[in-house]
Specification:
heterodimer; A: alpha+beta; 6 strands; B: 440 residues
């Protein structure tokens, strides 16, 4: 399935954990839950012009949220941890967001 | 750090200060540590946001602002020390360059203590007014004491005379109707003191005890109660008692009663000595004041506005303190005298300028003559203060241990010595002062 790379990669995830992983050339993104690792790899390479070594993915289930008597659910989503090849340039979006 | 000094108009100095890149970087690091503690960003615990993320999120201006607060006062202070200028007001800071990887450059414009050209300060010609204390002065003083110890005698039967104290009942009528506050019983009135409406007391003279009388007066036009002002009134009064004042006789008994001396002659001597002493002190103070004033007037200098303003502030706060002692405050005083704060400031300005001039002059003389305050003098001064405040010496010493206080004390002693020096150098001519008016 060929989709636009920018539809696969939703947004970068920036947190204490993800910033500390950046030292190991690992970057975290929220991605389309239907995308597979190969698609994610290609999308990241295309958007950021970097070399990807590995992709790990996790399905994150949405949290239950209540508004008084009504309960609802946040959508499930997929997190991808992308490891870059050694010597590849860093992903700039994380440097200056 | 590099400092470029430049004199500009109006007694101001502009300092161009360059702070090395490394220092700026350090300050930014410090600033980050300070700022990060208060930053809440989703995904990060408080205080754990890495610097690049913080900078990209809030912009690096946040850090620069903070860094400047750390860096500028420090750098400014050092620059002041380096150039040994004497600022009299906080500086105006102007940033010239503040970029990453470049030294920080800023300009500080500050008013400085003007350098003054000292006039010839030796041999100032001053007239010293000395008033000789004579027997009349002593007699005046004695008469005053007599009045303070006056005795009142109740008279059995005599017409009321001016100067007597009368006990009376009165009821006042305006248009035949009694008015508020217009009546009293057994009111004590000193006849001739002028505390009642004009004409009232005069009409009472000659009355006997128990006599009743109608007194017709009219309220003055400027009477404080507007309803009554200018209206004619009738007071029905009854005289209950007459007390006549009796001055104590001037003799040894009187001396023993009012003083620690046994005889009148001793008391007179003491008064004479005290008056002489006071006169001596007064004229020395006057001379010192005149010497300083004469010199201060002769210096040509542009007074820094900041100094004058500060002096005005000080004078006003002195006034306020004084008022507080009398149970007043500044606002009340202003409304009573129908003045505005600005008006008051304007009033004080001239005097403040004079004082600033004198301060500048004395300061310059302290420097020129190398006047120093010695430890003994400081000790002596502290001892004196302790005495006059009724506090142990240690308490006063502790007070002066606070930063800045000791310098103030030193400065004060130096200035005093400078005044003494000027007086000693001045050419003083003794003149006999015109006789002062009789004291009240």
């Amino acid at each position: 399935m060929i989709r636009d790379a920018r539809e696969i990669i939703k947004k970068p995830l920036i947190s204490e954990k993800s910033t500390s992983m950046m030292e190991e050339m690992k970057y975290a993104f929220q991605v389309d839950p239907k995308a597979n690792k190969i698609e994610i790899k290609k999308a990241v390479e295309e958007i950021f012009k970097v070399k990807v070594k590995d992709v790990n993915t996790i399905r994150v289930s949405g949290k239950m949220k209540r508004m008084g008597a009504y309960s609802g659910r946040r959508p499930n989503w997929k997190k991808a941890i992308v490891t870059l090849e050694e010597g590849s340039k860093p992903i700039e979006i994380f440097e200056g967001l | 750090m590099m400092v470029k000094l430049e004199k500009i108009d109006g007694g101001k100095i502009s300092l161009e200060i360059e702070v090395a890149e490394k220092m700026l970087e350090d300050a930014l690091g410090q600033a980050y540590k300070k700022v990060v503690k208060n930053v809440n960003l989703p995904g990060f615990r408080k205080g754990k946001v890495p610097r690049p993320i913080l900078e990209s999120h809030f912009g690096s201006e946040v850090l620069y602002e903070e860094a400047l607060e750390i860096l500028v006062p420090d750098a400014y202070e050092k620059a002041v020390e380096e150039t040994s200028i004497e600022p009299v007001a906080p500086p105006e800071i102007d940033l010239l360059q503040m970029e990453k990887g470049k030294p920080l450059i800023f300009k500080a414009i500050v008013e400085v203590k003007p350098e003054i050209e000292l006039p010839e300060y030796r041999g100032v010609q001053i007239d010293r007014e000395v008033r000789e204390i004579t027997g009349t002065d002593v007699a005046n003083r004695l008469a005053q004491m007599q009045k303070q110890h006056v005795k009142l005698h109740v008279l059995a039967d005599a017409p009321l005379a001016s100067g007597d104290v009368a006990l009376l009942d009165f009821t006042g009528y305006v248009d035949g109707v009694p008015f508020d506050g217009g009546s009293a019983e057994n009111y004590t009135l000193e006849v001739g003191s002028g505390s009642f409406i004009p004409g009232f007391e005069e009409q009472m003279v000659g009355m006997n005890i128990g006599e009743e009388k109608d007194i017709a007066v009219s309220f003055p036009e400027e009477y404080h109660n507007e309803d009554l002002a200018g209206k004619p009134a009738i007071f029905k009064i009854k005289l209950n008692e007459i007390k006549r004042k009796e001055l104590p006789e001037l003799n040894d008994d009187f001396a023993a009663e009012v003083s620690e001396f046994a005889t009148l002659a001793e008391l007179k001597d003491d008064i004479l000595n005290k008056l002489k002493e006071a006169e001596e002190k007064k004229s020395s103070n006057e001379v010192a004041k005149r010497v300083v004033e004469t010199l201060a007037e002769s210096i040509d200098v542009l007074l820094p506005a900041a100094l004058v303003d500060r002096e005005v502030d000080r004078m006003i706060s002195e006034m306020e303190n004084f008022m507080k002692m009398q149970g007043l405050n500044l606002e009340k005083f202003l409304s009573l005298t129908q003045q505005s704060v600005d008006g008051l400031r304007l009033d004080k300005r001239l005097e403040a300028e004079k004082r600033v001039r004198a301060d500048l002059l004395l300061d310059a003389i302290v420097k020129k003559e190398g006047i120093e305050a010695t430890d003994e003098e400081v000790k002596e001064r502290i001892g004196k203060m302790a005495e006059s405040y009724g506090q142990p010496v240690e308490v006063i010493e502790e007070y002066f241990a606070a930063p800045g206080q000791a310098e103030a004390l030193f400065q004060e002693i130096k200035v005093r010595k400078a005044i003494d020096f000027l007086v000693a150098e001045a050419k003083i001519t003794n003149v006999v002062a015109p006789a002062t008016k009789e004291e009240k």
